[in-house]
Amino acid sequence: MKSIAVLTSPEVPLPAEGCALLDTLPCTTTVCTPGNAAEVVGASEACFVWDTDLTSYIESQWDAFAHLSWMHVAVTGVDSFLFPKLVNSNVLLTNASGIYNDSIAEFVLFCILSHAKQRRLLESQQRNHEWRHATSATVKESNAVIYGVGSIGRTVGKTLTKLGLHVRGIDPYTSVAEGFECIYRNADMREAAAWSDYFIICAPLTEQTRHSVNAEIFDAMKASCHVINVGRGPIIDETALVQALTSGSIGSASLDVFETEPLPSDNPLWEMENVHISPHISGDAGDFELALIRQFADLADMWFHGHDFPSAVDKKRGYAHTRQN
């Protein structure tokens, strides 16, 4: 019988309902931690990585995982998993594509409305018991650029279009997407940035996207532009971002991801009045943990019966794509 190892740690246990769901799979499923994972994963054909902070451990033990043909990770961004031995192996890699789309789109909308409606000012007035008139901006007819028109970016675009924003994208491969007026290539990012009122990063972290939003791009933006990052922290050159925010080259930012996480306590972003910080939570909403396990269970059933998955990670490009039969 086919066997699956579920790799986690004592600090990141699976929810009880999720364990019960895994027990219904038509194959042997064994939960393991780094204490016994070399033996359990080493004897399994598939591995479900629940604690996605175990990438260093997985890389260090990769040679022991000789029987693996499939690895699924409970996260969308797979950059930390793409170490050379996995990339060059025949192991099929899948991720949590689609699970976080709606939650992240809602979070982006929250960032935009919080900025436009001056949430920080209103909260300050409430704390100080101040009744003072304040005006706010409307988001309808604003220009939003979405960098990364994958499944998350497309969902964000649809959400913003419904509110009356003009939406354009930046993507090296996608040319057309519902609700997008046009999609620029990465080489035209300065032109897109100059048009934007909201510059929203949804791209995966690859060698091509690392520090691609840098001083040159910030210089092209309007002084009122609001930057939102729900993709990966290192896509932004953080030093250049701090300089742009300090100098007034751009207006403000909502940041959910950072170059170093947790964000160090001495990072200047913490003290900036024109920055909203959240601790990498844009997709963590509702029953997302159970949704992750249900997704894996569906894939495991397909795997057991020899069916192709609807999508898989392109290990060379660094993100999931729809598989072609």
Automatic annotation (TrEMBL):
Domain D-isomer specific 2-hydroxyacid dehydrogenase NAD-binding: start-end pairs: 111-282
Keywords linked to the UniProt accession: NAD, Oxidoreductase
Domain of life: Bacteria
Ranges in a coiled coil: none
InterPro entries, per the entry: D-isomer_DH_NAD-bd (IPR006140), NAD(P)-bd_dom_sf (IPR036291)
A GO term for molecular function: oxidoreductase activity
Protein name according to UniProt: D-2-hydroxyacid dehydrogenase
